[in-house]
Amino acid sequence: ARRDGLAVEAREDAARRIAEIVLSRPEIAKADLVSAYWPIRSEVDVRPLIAALRDRGQAVALPQVTPDGLVFRLAAEGDALSPGGFGLSEPGPDAPVVDPRVLLVPLAAFDRRGHRIGYGKGYYDRALARLDAQGRALAIGIAFAAQETPVVPDGPHDRPLDGIVTEAGLIHPTGD
């Protein structure tokens, strides 16, 4: 992925800028609970953003891969994380399962329509469909600007993101 070629300092600077943008968004600030992710591979490191959300008094959930798909579990500061599927670090089985209304979503690539490429299993699309059944959840992609691509192939079950935050700013998807 193009993000792999970014220098460490550039990645850290970009992650700080992304965190500033996310934290400045009113729709994020008013959420009692925000689902984030623990970074793997060369994903944007949102761990400082998670700490900032908690410092503001917001609860944070992290995804857990199960045989039935993604579930989201509360992840309080200091909670031990366990190794999970795909190299993920996940909350333990005793952490409460929650249904977040605001999600920060990792991705490998995105386009201006709000479509994303994940890791090919459709976990987030299915989880968002389940959450959207209770009223549309706010799904914000988190990426480096270098991950933008002209067109991401999409299918009937692909759920576009409501926004994408990169170090260059917030992208409002066109949806077409």
Automatic annotation (TrEMBL):
Binding site residues for substrate: 43
Pfam families membership: 5-FTHF_cyc-lig (PF01812)
Record keyword Transport present: no
GO biological process: folic acid-containing compound biosynthetic process; tetrahydrofolate interconversion
Record-linked Gene3D superfamilies: NagB/RpiA/CoA transferase-like
Cofactor: Mg(2+)
Family designation: Belongs to the 5-formyltetrahydrofolate cyclo-ligase family.
Protein name: 5-formyltetrahydrofolate cyclo-ligase
Species of origin: Methylobacterium aquaticum
